[in-house]
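Re: that backbone. C-alpha cells:
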C-alpha cells in the first residue's frame, strides 16, 4: 500500500514548456545584446546622459501603448500566431539598428522594437503558465526565468565581444539572427491549454487582470532601478577606468541559475509573502554596494547580491499575478505584470539620465553624477518594500 497509494508529484517538464524556454532564451539573448549595445551606441554618437536614458527607455513607450490591445488578444486569438508575428517584428527592428546613424532613427526603431517585445515576452510567459500544473506555478515560472538568466549571462558578453571584433552594425545584424532562432522554434510549437477562447472585446477586464495589479505596481517600482543600472553600468564602469564590465552581467545571470529555483521552491513551500521581503533586502544591499564600488570585484559582489534581490523577486511577483487571477485570464494577468515592467523600463533610464544631468549641471563630475544617481535608486525599492508590507495579506490573495 505504501508506495502504490501515493500520488505522483506533477512535473513542470513537458515539451511545450521546454520549447517556450528555448524561445525565451533566443529572444532574451538578442535583447540583452541590444541592451548593452544601444546605450553605448547612442553615447558614442555624442548624446548626453539624459538623451541616452530617453532613447534606451523609448521601447517601453510603445510597449505600454499596445498593451490595452494585445491583452484581450492573448485570450481571444491563436497565441502561436501572435508569438510568431511579434518575434518577426523584433527581428526586423533589431536589424534596422544596423542602418540607423542618428539618435532620432534609433529612437523610432526602439518604438517598433517595444511593440514586438511587449507582445512576445508577456505571451511566452502566459503560454508557459498554461503548460504548468497549478501547484508548481511559483517554481515553474522561476525555472522558466532560467532561460532569461542564461541569456542574460551570455548576451552582454557576446554583445561587447562583437562590438570589439566587428563593430556596432554587424553586431546588430548578428543579434537579429539570434532572434530568428526563436522565431523558427515558435513555428513548430503547439499552443498549450485547452480552454475555450473568448471573443475579442476591448474591455478593461480583458486588457488587464485586477488580481495582478498590485504585483504589477511592485514590479514597476523594482524595475525602475534595475533598468537604470543595466543602461548605465558599463558607462559608469568605463568612467571609473574599470575594464571587463561585461563580467558584471555574467556573474549576475550565473547566480540567477542557483537563486531563482531556490527562491521559487521556497515560495512554493512557505509562500511568497515570507520570501519576497528577503529578496527586497538583498536588492537594497546590492545597490548600496554599487554606490561604493571602485573596482571590478566590488561590482561583481553587487551582481551576486542583486541576483538574490531583483532577480529572485520579479518571477515570484509574476507568478503571484497568475495565481491571483482566474485561469481564463492568464493572458490578461501576464499583460498586467509586463505593463509594470514596461513602466519601470521607461521611467528608470529616463529619470536616471535626468538625475545624472542635474548632478553635472550642479558641478559634479560625470562619474560622481552616476554615483549620485545610484543612491537615488534605493528610494523606489524602499517604497516597494513598504507597499508590499501593507497589502500582502489583502490585495495579493491567490484564487482557488
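Recovered sequence:
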Amino acid at each position: 500500500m505504501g508506495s502504490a497509494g501515493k500520488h505522483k508529484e506533477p512535473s513542470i517538464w513537458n515539451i511545450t514548456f521546454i520549447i517556450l524556454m528555448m524561445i525565451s532564451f533566443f529572444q532574451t539573448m538578442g535583447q540583452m545584446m541590444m541592451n548593452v549595445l544601444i546605450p553605448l551606441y547612442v553615447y558614442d554618437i555624442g548624446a548626453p546622459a539624459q538623451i541616452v536614458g530617453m532613447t534606451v527607455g523609448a521601447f517601453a513607450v510603445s510597449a505600454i501603448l499596445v498593451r490595452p490591445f494585445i491583452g484581450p488578444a492573448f485570450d481571444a486569438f491563436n497565441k502561436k500566431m501572435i508569438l510568431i508575428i511579434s518575434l518577426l517584428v523584433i527581428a526586423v527592428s533589431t536589424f534596422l539598428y544596423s542602418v540607423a546613424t542618428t539618435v532620432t532613427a534609433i529612437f523610432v526603431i526602439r518604438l517598433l522594437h517595444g511593440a514586438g517585445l511587449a507582445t512576445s515576452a508577456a505571451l511566452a510567459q502566459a503560454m508557459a503558465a498554461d503548460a504548468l500544473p497549478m501547484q508548481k506555478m511559483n517554481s515553474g515560472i522561476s525555472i522558466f526565468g532560467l532561460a532569461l538568466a542564461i541569456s542574460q549571462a551570455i548576451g552582454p558578453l557576446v554583445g561587447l565581444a562583437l562590438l570589439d571584433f566587428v563593430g556596432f552594425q554587424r553586431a546588430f545584424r548578428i543579434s537579429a539572427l539570434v532572434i530568428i532562432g526563436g522565431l523558427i522554434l515558435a513555428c513548430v510549437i503547439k499552443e498549450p491549454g485547452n480552454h475555450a477562447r473568448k471573443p475579442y472585446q476591448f474591455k478593461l477586464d480583458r486588457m488587464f487582470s485586477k488580481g495582478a495589479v498590485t504585483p504589477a505596481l511592485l514590479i514597476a517600482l523594482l524595475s525602475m532601478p534595475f533598468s537604470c543600472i543595466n543602461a548605465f553600468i558599463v558607462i559608469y564602469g568605463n568612467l571609473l577606468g574599470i575594464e571587463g564590465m561585461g563580467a558584471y552581467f555574467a556573474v549576475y545571470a550565473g547566480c540567477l541559475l542557483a537563486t531563482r529555483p531556490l527562491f521559487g521552491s521556497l515560495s512554493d513551500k512557505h509562500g511568497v509573502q515570507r520570501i519576497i521581503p528577503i529578496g527586497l533586502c538583498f536588492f537594497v544591499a546590492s545597490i548600496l554596494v554599487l554606490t561604493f564600488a571602485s573596482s571590478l570585484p566590488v561590482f561583481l559582489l553587487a551582481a551576486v547580491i542583486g541576483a538574490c534581490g531583483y532577480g529572485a523577486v520579479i518571477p515570484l511577483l509574476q507568478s503571484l499575478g497568475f495565481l491571483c487571477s482566474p485561469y481564463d485570464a492568464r493572458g490578461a494577468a501576464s499583460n498586467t505584470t509586463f505593463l509594470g515592467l514596461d513602466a519601470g523600463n521607461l521611467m528608470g533610464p529616463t529619470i536616471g539620465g535626468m538625475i545624472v544631468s542635474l548632478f553635472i549641471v550642479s558641478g559634479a563630475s560625470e562619474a560622481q553624477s552616476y554615483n549620485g544617481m545610484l543612491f537615488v535608486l534605493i528610494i523606489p525599492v524602499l517604497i516597494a518594500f513598504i507597499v508590499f508590507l501593507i497589502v500582502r495579506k489583502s490585495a495579493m490573495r491567490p484564487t482557488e
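The longest helix spans residues 137-186. The two ends are 31 Å apart (CA to CA).
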